[in-house]
Design a protein that fits this description.
Helix content: over 70%
Distance between the termini: 43 Å
Shape: globular
Radius of gyration: 15 Å
Strand content: under 5%
Oligomer: single chain
Number of domains: 1
Largest sheet: none
Order of helices and strands: HHHH
Number of helices: 4
């Protein structure tokens, strides 16, 4: 994965991205609220609406990976 390519995409630079670079860019977008969503969408070559959908999916995935331990604790109680 090329870090400079991912950083460029987050700033809106259009360049071919690998699947892993695209995933990394979406994860960073979710983690950093200061990023401009329009620029990130442009850098990924997708619509703003689709970026928001990908971000929502990423948040759901991260909740699911964090919640099994919470579910186990609730079941134990």
């Amino acid at each position: 994965m090329d870090e400079k390519t991912v950083q460029g995409a987050l700033r809106g630079a259009t360049a071919p991205l690998t699947k892993n670079e695209r995933k990394a860019a979406v994860k960073r977008f979710v983690a950093d609220q200061t990023l401009d969503s329009a620029a990130v969408a442009r850098g990924l070559g997708i619509t703003h609406e689709y970026l928001l959908k990908l971000a929502w999916r990423e948040r759901q995935r991260s909740k699911q990976t964090a919640s099994p331990s919470a579910d186990q604790e609730a079941d134990a109680a």
